[in-house]
Specification:
This protein is of the alpha/beta class. It folds into two domains: about 110 residues, Rossmann fold; about 190 residues, no CATH class. About 45% of the residues lie in helices and about 10% in strands. Helix 3 links the parallel strand 1 and strand 2. Helix 7 runs antiparallel to helix 8 and helix 7 runs antiparallel to helix 9.
């Protein structure tokens, strides 16, 4: 690794003049489409970062301590607590010299619109004030009120569609038109999610299995109601009961969660909030049923929890309505 001289970096006319006046240099505003992004991390984390960042359309430069011109550079860091004092001071000096310095995960979070969960560490979750949906009572009350109002209105509006769907399911295949299934909700508490049946009644005779694209277990009517999200209408009852929210991470089954949390860091953190009838992952990521797909959906779920707002909920809901109207179900 190239050696760097911290004293040399601190000894610049710009910094010296600012420090003599008793104030630090402010990092400039910048666009998140910079060509080069510098990443500083412990040497033993390099392979992890390179694997996680390989598909990003960004030129990442790792541990370049020979960097001299720091003004307007984008500098990120990962696991900086494991760096030596000298290297951490390099990052502090970079901020003073006009670079934009922030944690790598935060940079990606803002730039990409999702959270790189493969790089999450416990420190990401230890600043609860950054999660307004978790610590602000006003936000929680407002979300609950909006849920109740919207769920009631939507139930009334969709009741004719629900009735027709009920009849078509009964005529299409034997078995009940509505079914209940255990799902994991807020605080890891299980509840019965209510849905229109879209599969044959013997769909899980051989045990629980992820739904797949063009799944043979799905009925003819089931294909349509899945694509248009009509099968989710009964979940509005779950919302009124307080078991779900209109917008949030989709509820999953415990049998799959136990499998996913072995390979996805902090997977159960999604249960910090109520599951949703729709969510950011559903409108942002194509349909899929694999561990890789679950990882991608978790990226959007964590991002939603971190950046939740009423405006975000409204945007997600509007995009969901578009999916329903034009049959663009994922």
């Amino acid at each position: 690794m190239p050696e760097f001289n911290l004293a040399h970096k601190l000894d610049t006319p710009l910094l010296s003049s600012q420090l003599k006046k008793g104030r630090s240099v402010r990092a400039p505003k910048y666009a998140y489409n910079s060509i080069d992004v510098y990443v500083f991390c412990p040497e033993d984390k390099l392979e992890l970062l390179k694997r996680s960042l390989i598909n990003y359309d960004v030129n990442f430069i790792f541990n370049d301590y020979s960097l001299k011109n720091l003004d307007k550079k984008i500098i990120t860091h990962f696991d900086n607590s494991s760096l030596s004092d000298e290297k951490r001071n390099f990052l502090v000096a970079a901020t003073e010299l006009g670079a934009w310095v922030e944690p790598l995960v935060s940079y990606l979070d803002k730039r990409m619109g999702y959270t790189e969960v493969t790089l999450l560490q416990s420190s990401y979750f230890l600043h609860q004030k950054a999660f307004s949906i978790l610590n602000t009572k006003r936000t929680q009350v407002a979300k609950r009120i909006i849920d109740l109002i919207l769920a009631s209105i939507l139930l009334i509006l969709f009741s004719p569609i629900a009735l027709i769907t009920y009849l078509f399911i009964k005529f299409d295949s034997p078995g009940p038109a509505i079914f209940k299934q255990k799902r994991v909700g807020q605080y890891n508490e299980e509840f019965n999610v209510i849905k229109f049946r879209s599969m044959r009644i013997d769909a899980e005779v051989n045990g629980a299995k992820w739904a797949e694209k063009n799944d043979e277990r799905i009925t003819k009517v089931g294909q349509f109601i899945r694509k248009t999200r009509i099968d989710e209408i009964p979940q509005l009852i779950n919302v009124i009961r307080g078991e779900m929210s209109i917008v949030g991470p989709r509820p999953e089954r415990e049998v799959f969660i136990e499998e996913l949390e072995k390979v996805i860091p902090y997977y159960r953190f999604r249960h910090a909030v109520k599951p949703g009838v729709t969510g950011l992952a559903q409108i942002s990521y194509p349909y899929g049923a694999s561990v890789e797909d679950a990882i991608w959906k978790h990226k959007y779920d964590i991002h939603y929890i971190k950046h939740h707002s009423t405006i975000v909920d409204m945007k997600i809901l509007l995009k969901t309505i578009k999916v329903v109207i034009f049959g663009q179900g994922r």
